[in-house]
Amino acid sequence: MQKDKENKIIEVRNLVKSFKSGESELVVLKGLELSVPRGQFLSITGRSGSGKSTLLYQLGLLDKPNSGEIIIDGTDVSNLSKEESTKFRLNKLGYVFQDYALIPELTALENVLIPLLMQGLSKEQAHKKAVASMTKIGLGDRLNNVPSQLSGGQQQRVSIARAIAHDPDIIFADEPTANLDTETSDSVLQAFIDLNKQGQTIVMVTHEKEYSDLTDRVVQLSDGKIISDIINKK
Amino acid sequence: MSVTSHLVKGKRIKNFLTSLNLGTFLAFRQVKRSSVGTTALIVFVMMLTFLNLVVVRGVLVGLIQSSTDLYREKYSGDVIVSNLPKKSYIENSPSIIEIVKNLPWVETYSPRYLESGKIEGTYKERIDYTEDANLANAAFTGIDVNLEESATGISEMLIEGEMLTPEDTDSILLGANLMKKYLDIEAPGLLLLENVQVGDVVRITVNGNTKEMFIKGIIKAKGAFDDRVVMLDSTLRTLIGRNDYNVDEIAIQITPNADPVMVKQALLSSGVGETARVQTFDEALPKFLKDMQATFGMLGDAIGSIGLVVASITIFIVVYINAITRRKFIGIMKGIGIDSVAIEFSYILQSIFYALMGVMIGMALLYGLLVPYFIANPINFPFSDGVLIAELDGTIMRAGLLLIATIFAGYIPARLVVKQNTLDAILGR
């Protein structure tokens, strides 16, 4: 039992999230329960409005639930202050956004560098780690290009490099292939699979079945509830 | 303080320094890769704001400063000794002059006799005695030509004719403001001489005595002598019957490094204060000049303050628009764990950069172009030649004020945007 607890990197208990819409209240997550073992590649699927992105934002500490508990690596993160959340995100989590979310004035390398500098690493250490991260995802020759000089796929891979550079416990990816063509999407997903093979926990929101089928586990949401939870056989 | 709290404090300081370090990194890159045109425009606006802060006040103060300097250089000297309020001259003047002469800081001095009277021109051509005479009321000043020249350089004030010599007992220098030709204004009770020129004979009446005299020269220096009739001290002394050599005022020029207040104190310590009034040049300034000095200084400060507010608002708008248009990226940075201090600091640094660039270019323009231009081409005002006064310490203080205002004007909008909900910023909600 103790071993099982230690193995769970994410535990969600009775998670409720609602939004006010004028006079009425729209409940998006309705008492959701979920646990994710360390090293798992989990995909969250569902139709538009099912609550999959909202769940990702709660898990990634980008938003606060109305009630319920989120425990990440043994820490109850549901009630952290803004500053504590920021620090937790910096040290424990990595993000890959649908639209890459790179800072336009910074080069690819500098985009990867900033979370490392924020962690207090020296410029030399941060530079070394950022270059290693860029090389790992195959962009070692694009270090000094600004985002506008990169293709969509390359930008998304820079985003992945930024997410993994500081060795996070979990990577959250919000529809990372939505803006990419098939070939580029395949290469981005392959990058995630490779990372997962090295033990990286990944939680990815996607509406593309062919990609969710490639992950370890598929959780399907509908109307704020989990309607299926399938372990993929590989 | 316990070891734990020391450690916590140390960690906080380290985190803060890390944030400042990253803020600097972000600011440098944002400025470096921002549009050259936009940066140039912002710097240009900051430069104009800085110049507005310094130049407008500098010109206003310069107008008065010039007239004050003129009064000091061309009339009062650094210290002026004059008669006590209820006395018509300085009693025991020869002894006082001896004291003045022997003070170590006195470079030169000029004793003067003063008396009011009338001057009449073209009286020989006057036919119709029902018409007003060609008269002007004037203050007559008797000088020792050599001493006055060394004290005020009176010959430099000549605009027509020649300077008096010690032998010119029948000649005068006429102040330009007594002539309609030079002061063409109409005012009730103001009498001005018409149709007189250098070489003409005029009739002067002082203390009931009348004398015909030649106009040897016309003087004008936007100062006190412009309203006066100047003659040899011996001539005026005879006219007013002052045979005891008691003068009405003594203008004293002191050595360059001496302090007028110290010289005044030395004179008072010597007992001069018992029979005369001793004033430094700024104490002796005419009241209208003092009032104008205060008013123009206040106006300059008011305009400067408005300039500072305008500068703050300009920076606020620039930073706010910049931060609002980058709201999504600010959200992303917060999302990936960059703390607010680093982001806010990057905006403060950018504001400081714009302000510093504006100030530096403004200073180069100010001291390289504007100040030399105004010295070469002073503004021609009736009471002074206006120059631009921009003392370095005052300019640095205003640049400092602008920078402080910039820090706040950069911080507040950045804070407003940074404190918005992270997810809303990322999603553009």
Index terms:
heterodimer; A: 234 residues; alpha/beta; 6-stranded mixed β-sheet; 4-stranded antiparallel β-sheet; 8 helices; B: 429 residues; alpha+beta; 6-stranded mixed β-barrel; two-stranded antiparallel sheet; 12 strands; elongated
Summarize the structure.
Chain A is an alpha/beta fold and 234 residues long.
Q: Would you kindly provide a written description of the structure presented here, covering whatever features stand out?
A:
The complex is a heterodimer of chains A (234) and B (429). Chain A has 234 residues and is of the alpha/beta class. In chain A, 36% of the residues lie in helices and 29% in strands. Chain A has 8 helices and 10 strands. Chain A has helices at residues 2-7, 52-59, 82-92, 108-118, 123-136, 152-165, 182-197, 209-212; strands spanning 8-21, 24-37, 41-46, 67-72, 75-76, 93-96, 170-174, 201-205, 217-222, 225-231. In chain A, the strands form 2 sheets. In chain A, strands 6-7-8-3-9-10 form a 6-stranded mixed β-sheet, with helices on both faces. A 4-stranded antiparallel β-sheet of chain A has the order 2-1-4-5. The longest helix of chain A is centred in the C-terminal third of the chain and has 16 residues, at 182-197. Chain A is globular and about 50 Å long. Chain A starts with a helix and ends with a strand. The mean pLDDT of chain A is 91. The longest helix of chain B has 41 residues, at 36-76. Chain B is elongated and about 100 Å long. In chain B, helix 1 crosses helix 10 (340-376), helix 2 packs across helix 10 (340-376) and helix 8 (287-325) packs parallel to helix 11 (392-418). Chain B is built from 12 helices and 12 strands. Chain B starts with a helix and ends with a helix. In chain B, strands 2-3-8-5-7-6 form a 6-stranded mixed β-barrel. A two-stranded antiparallel ribbon of chain B has the order 11-12. Chain B has helices spanning 3-33, 36-76, 93-102, 145-152, 233-240, 260-269, 281-284, 287-325, 327-335, 340-376, 392-418, 422-427; strands at 79-83, 106-120, 135-143, 158-161, 171-175, 201-206, 209-219, 228-232, 249-254, 276-280, 379-380, 385-386. By secondary structure, chain B is an alpha+beta fold. The relative contact order of chain B is 0.18. The model of chain B has no long low-confidence stretch (mean pLDDT 89). The interface between A and B is medium-sized, with 28 and 28 residues.
